[in-house]
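Re: weekly structure request thread

Next one in the queue (147 aa):
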Amino acid sequence: MTIVKQILDEKGHEIWSVRPETTVLETLRLMDQKDIGAVLVVDEGVLVGIFSERDFARTVAQTGEASIHMPVKDLMTHAVYYVVPDRTLDECMALMTGKHIRHLPVLEDGTLVGLISIGDVVKSVISDRESIIKGLENYIVGREYSL
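Done, posted below.
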């Protein structure tokens, strides 16, 4: 079973973040430039929130407007769920599904070491399942196969 650390080792540990005072417009521009759906909000090295396309869209839907000049801290999600590197993908999928979230920061000993998305998890789960299926197919027809 694949764990979070393996996903980060493959995709990298790069984290895109902004400070709480960063404007919504600056944050959206960063997200556009990096082609990402969410950005972590970090204050003096401490994870204080996450801002996603969903946060922006919901604010517009609920209020009819969202000032792009307001600080991102006013629209971000404050309750941030996270995982540690040794969590399995099944545990991540259960958390993401149960909490209706698409991004999970990864913390190790309280330090932010990465971010995984539902896309990362699904891609890895599919790869794991395909490998198992291929191994079983080869076993059935009598060929050796190593995972």
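The chain has one domain: 4-141. The longest strand covers residues 46-52.
Next request, please.
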